[in-house]
Design brief:
Blueprint (H helix, E strand, L loop, with lengths): L10 E5 L4 H13 L4 E3 L11 H12 L6 E5 L3 H7 L7 E3 L3 H9 L5 E5 L5 H13 L6 H6 L6
Helix pairs in contact: 2-3, 4-5
Length: 151
């Protein structure tokens, strides 16, 4: 597996209550692969507010403290919207393999957001594997990505 991110840094991971079980399973799966993971919570399935976990994940990626981010919530929309408030974040919502590949190839996404209530755990793992190993194509896509930020 050739990971395209700087894996000398940990991978940021976070979730709300709806994504807690997936976050825990993916954290174990990644560490079993020998990768470092920085868990930004939540720490249980008790109801919480997703921005409290999406912002710290996004900040760590934006500040180059972590290689990339993984966020889970029920639909993944809330965490994606929150993470994308950060100027250097390109958070992509993924629900199937082709989307996980395209958010990397075409959008240079640095955070993958997965809807825990709508995809199986095995699919989530597969999408993260694709996300981690798919390079950004650049070229015409780089011009588009360079137009995303508002600053």
């Amino acid at each position: 597996m050739d990971i395209v991110f700087d894996i000398t840094k940990p991978i940021a991971i976070g979730s709300d209550h709806a994504g807690f079980e997936y976050k825990e399973a993916i954290k174990k799966w990644l560490t079993d692969k020998g990768l470092q993971v920085k868990d930004f919570g939540t720490d249980s399935s008790a109801s919480v507010d997703y921005p409290d976990f999406a912002h710290p994940v996004a900040s760590s990626v934006e500040n180059n403290e972590t290689a990339f981010g993984i966020l889970f919530c029920g639909s993944a929309n809330g965490v994606a919207i929150t993470a994308n408030k950060h100027q250097q974040i390109r958070a992509g919502l993924s629900w199937e393999d082709d989307v996980a590949k395209l958010i990397r190839q075409h959008n240079d996404a640095n955070v993958i957001c997965i809807p825990a209530r709508f995809v199986a755990l095995a699919l989530a793992q597969q999408m993260i594997e694709i996300f981690m190993t798919t390079p950004f194509e650049g070229g015409r896509h780089a011009n588009r990505v360079n137009k995303i930020a508002c600053s």
